[in-house]
Design brief:
Length: 412
C-alpha cells in the first residue's frame, strides 16, 4: 500500500505464503517486530516483555517462559479448562437464560477464569470484574493508538476516551505489580505460570526476571492469553449455531469419546473434530488479523526490494480467505483440517498463531483450552442464532465483533 509521504509510511501486506515463509521462518533474523505494532500495543506496563523484546533479551525470556508451556505441563491443566467451562454450564442450567447470551462476553469470562487459575494459580486473586472492565476499556484504545502510530505521532497524545484509558492502565499496572509482589513474598513453587516465571533462571547467564519484566510478562499473558482464545471460541459457537449438522457431529464426538465425564488429559487430544471446528473458526475469523515486522536493514523479500523499517504485515485475514489457497474460502468446513488435508497445505497458508521463532508461545495452551471448553459446552447445550441479528465486524486489538455475538442457548 502506498503511503502519504512524509506522514504515512508505505506499508506492505503479504498474502503469498512463500514470502511469508521467507519473512517469518527462513530469514526471520532479518526482520524484527514493527514499530507500528509496538507503538499501538505497548505501554509502560509491558514494554520490556517477551512480545516486545528483541535479540538476546527476547531469547532469554523465551527460554525462561518455555518450560511453563511444555506440552505435558499444559495437558495437566486440562481439568482447570474443563472445570471453568463446567461452571458456566452450571450457571446456565441454574439461570435458564430467557434472552440470548452474548457468546463473546461469556467466553471472555471463562478464559479469564482459566488465566486466573493457570497463570496466577488461584481464582479471586483480585477484583476480576473491575480488572476485566479496565482491560476491555484499555484495549479499546488500540484503534486510536494505531492511527497515531500510522501518522508517526507519539502515543501519549490525547484521543477520545484517553484519560479514562490512562486511569485504567494505571490501575492494571498497580494490580499486576501487587500480584507479583505478593507471589514474591510467598516464594511458592506451584505449577502456576507466575511461579514458574518467578523461579526461572537462565541456564547460560544465571539471570532471573526483574520486577518490570515480570509485571510486563504477567500482564502480557493475561491479555494475550484470554482475549484471543475468547474471540476464537465466540466465533466457533456462532459458526456452529449456523451449522447445526456440524454442531450435532461435534456433540456426538464428545459423547463417544468422553461420555458424561469431564474432558481430561486422556480425552482432550482425541477430540479431532472439535479441534477442527476451532481451527476452521480461526481460519474464517483469525483472532489476530495481521502480524507485523520490519527489516533491520534494506533488503529483499522474494524479488521485491524492501527498505529498512518499512512496515510489512502478514495479512492473515486475506491469506485465510484467499481464493488461490482455499476452495470456497468463505464457507465453514471443518473438514479442511483433517490431518491429511492440513499436511498437504503450504505451511504458511494458515497462520492464526504466526510461524517461526516468534510463533505464539501459548499455541498449545490455547488449542487444548479451546477444545476442552467447546467440547464441554456443546455436549450439554444447543446453540442457535438470533433471528434478525446483523453481524458488525470491528477489527480492533482482535476480531471481536461490535455489540457482541448474541446466541440462544438451551440444554440438549
Ligand atoms: C486463540 C488463541 C491465540 C491466538 C490466535 C494467538 C495469536 C498470536 C500471534 C498471531 C502472535 C504473534 C506471532 C508473531 O509475531 O509471529 C502471538 C504471540 C504471542 N502469544 Fe499468542 N495467541 C493466542 C493465545 C495465547 C495464549 C493462551 C498465550 C499465553 C498464555 C499467548 C501468549 C503469546 C505471547 C507471549 C506471544 C509473544 C511471543 C514472542 O514474541 O516470542 N497467546 N500470539
Amino acid at each position: 500500500m502506498r503511503g502519504i509521504w512524509p506522514i504515512v509510511p508505505k506499508t506492505i501486506y503479504l498474502t503469498d505464503p512463500a514470502l511469508v515463509e521467507e519473512m517469518l521462518l527462513t530469514r526471520a533474523e532479518f526482520f524484527q517486530r514493527d514499530v507500528m505494532t509496538i507503538q499501538a500495543l505497548s505501554g509502560a506496563i509491558n514494554k520490556g516483555s517477551l512480545f516486545f523484546s528483541e535479540g538476546a533479551d527476547w531469547k532469554w525470556q523465551r527460554r525462561a517462559l518455555a518450560p511453563a508451556f511444555r506440552h505435558e505441563n499444559l495437558l495437566a491443566l486440562t481439568p482447570i479448562f474443563a472445570r471453568c467451562a463446567g461452571e458456566l454450564c452450571q450457571a446456565w442450567r441454574r439461570e435458564r437464560p430467557t434472552a440470548p447470551i452474548d457468546a463473546m462476553k461469556a467466553m471472555s469470562e471463562v478464559t479469564f477464569s482459566i488465566i486466573e487459575s493457570a497463570v496466577l494459580g488461584a481464582q479471586g486473586t483480585f477484583d476480576r470484574e473491575r480488572f476485566l472492565t479496565a482491560l476491555t476499556r484499555a484495549l479499546s484504545g488500540v484503534s486510536w493508538q494505531r492511527i497515531l502510530a500510522l501518522l508517526s505521532l507519539p502515543n501519549w497524545l490525547p484521543f477520545p476516551g484517553s484519560s479514562q484509558i490512562n486511569r485504567d492502565m494505571r490501575y492494571l499496572y498497580d494490580e499486576t505489580a501487587r500480584i507479583v509482589a505478593a507471589r514474591r513474598a510467598t516464594r511458592a513453587h506451584t505449577p502456576a505460570i507466575v511461579d514458574l516465571m518467578l523461579n526461572a533462571t537462565d541456564p547460560e547467564s544465571g539471570r532471573t526476571m526483574t520486577d518490570s519484566e515480570l509485571i510486563g510478562n504477567l500482564y502480557g499473558l493475561m491479555v494475550a492469553g484470554h482475549e484471543t482464545s475468547a474471540v476464537a471460541l465466540g466465533w466457533s459457537l456462532w459458526l456452529l449455531a449456523k451449522d447445526q449438522a456440524s454442531q450435532e457431529r461435534l456433540r456426538a464426538e464428545v459423547q463417544e469419546i468422553a461420555g458424561a465425564d469431564d474432558i481430561g488429559p486422556e480425552t482432550v487430544e482425541r477430540l479431532q473434530f472439535t479441534k477442527q471446528v476451532v481451527q476452521e473458526a480461526m481460519r474464517l475469523f483469525p483472532p489476530a488479523a495481521a502480524i507485523g515486522r520490519q527489516p533491520r536493514e534494506d533488503t529483499t523479500l522474494g524479488p521485491h526490494k524492501v527498505l529498512k523499517k518499512e512496515p510489512i504485515f502478514v495479512a492473515i485475514w486475506a491469506l485465510h480467505r484467499h481464493e488461490k489457497l482455499w476452495d470456497q474460502p468463505n464457507a465453514f468446513d471443518p473438514d479442511r483440517f483433517t490431518p491429511e488435508k492440513a499436511k498437504a497445505r503450504h505451511r504458511c497458508a494458515y497462520l492464526p498463531f504466526g510461524a517461526g521463532p516468534r510463533i505464539c508461545i501459548g499455541m498449545s495452551f490455547a488449542m487444548l483450552e479451546m477444545t476442552a471448553i467447546l467440547a464441554t459446552l456443546v455436549r450439554d447445550f444447543r446453540f442457535t442464532t438470533v433471528e434478525g441479528h446483523r453481524l458488525e465486524l470491528a477489527p480492533d486489538f482482535t476480531t471481536r465483533p461490535r455489540g457482541g455475538l448474541p446466541l440462544w442457548v438451551a440444554p440438549v
